[in-house]
Write a structure and sequence with these properties.
The complex is a heterodimer of chains A (114) and B (110).
Chain A: E1 5-7, E2 10-13, E3 19-24, E4 31-38, E5 42-50, E6 53-56, E7 65-71, E8 74-79, E9 88-95, E10 104-105, E11 109-113
Parallel strand pairs in A: 2-11
Antiparallel strand pairs in A: 1-3, 3-8, 4-5, 4-9, 5-6, 7-8, 9-10, 9-11
Chain B: E1 5-7, E2 10-14, E3 19-24, E4 31-37, E5 44-49, E6 55-58, E7 61-65, E8 71-76, E9 85-92, E10 99-100, E11 104-109
Parallel strand pairs in B: 2-11
Antiparallel strand pairs in B: 1-3, 3-8, 4-5, 4-9, 6-7, 7-8, 9-10, 9-11
The chains are: A mainly beta (114), B mainly beta (110).
Chain lengths: 114, 110
């Protein structure tokens, strides 16, 4: 299995531009998570899906952030318009079921908003 | 909100030394996981502890879950440069998503 695949690996954009991050979870995993990692705040949960349905988006910082999961093999996280404070590493992760299950992370997208 | 505090935040040691890092909370967790993250990569699970007082060993790494299931420690014996990385603890209560600590950044110098 190729694991969780994220694209792009790096994204540099200017303030005000739209940014779209992509994720392909591991096949058969029913749960998909979007996290953001910064030095100051660590790893923060933004939103998670179960069977393509958003379950909890309380971690999404503002209306500028939105996430979709149109099917079991693809999810996007969109920021519009982007701001410099959005600069961070964004991780997608998936797992088979809830509870004490292993969470598989992608390699992340390093986002820099200038 | 469940919070996990990790200490120390940074640790730099010589190869061959022993070390312990800590993960503490005021909340009770049904399980606790330890991950290691290397630069440019996502976290990778090392171990899951479920039972209060549980001790698990992974080669030179020893993980312990506190009796009250509020804290955990990770002890590394004879650290090697390959142990360098960010160590994250994460707690789970029931079916709620994992809550992560900010991590301990370990540097092992040859």
């Amino acid at each position: 299995d190729a694991g969780v695949i994220q694209s792009p690996r790096h994204e540099v954009t200017e303030m005000g531009q739209e940014v779209t991050l992509r994720c392909k979870p591991i096949s058969g995993h029913d749960y998909l998570f979007w996290y953001r990692q910064t030095m100051m705040r660590g790893l923060e949960l933004l939103i998670y899906f179960n069977n393509n349905v958003p379950i909890d988006d309380s971690g999404m910082p503002e209306d500028r952030f939105s996430a979709k999961m149109p099917n079991a093999s693809f999810s996007t996280l969109k920021i519009q318009p982007s701001e410099p404070r959005d600069s961070a590493v964004y991780f997608c992760a998936s797992k088979v079921e809830p509870g004490a299950e292993k969470l598989f992370f992608g390699s992340g997208t390093q986002l820099s908003v200038l | 909100t469940q919070l996990l505090e990790q200490s120390p935040q940074f640790l730099s040691i010589q190869e061959g030394e022993n070390l312990t890092v800590y993960c503490n909370s005021s909340s009770v967790f049904s399980s606790l996981q330890w991950y290691r993250q290397e630069p440019g990569e996502g976290p990778v699970l090392l171990v899951t502890v479920v039972t209060g007082g549980e001790v698990k060993k992974l080669k030179r790494l020893t993980f312990q879950f506190g009796d009250a299931r509020k804290d955990s420690s990770l002890h590394i014996t004879a650290a090697q440069p390959g142990d360098t990385g960010l160590y994250l603890c994460a707690g789970e209560e029931g079916n709620t998503p994992l809550v992560f600590g900010k991590g301990t950044r370990l540097s092992v110098i040859a």
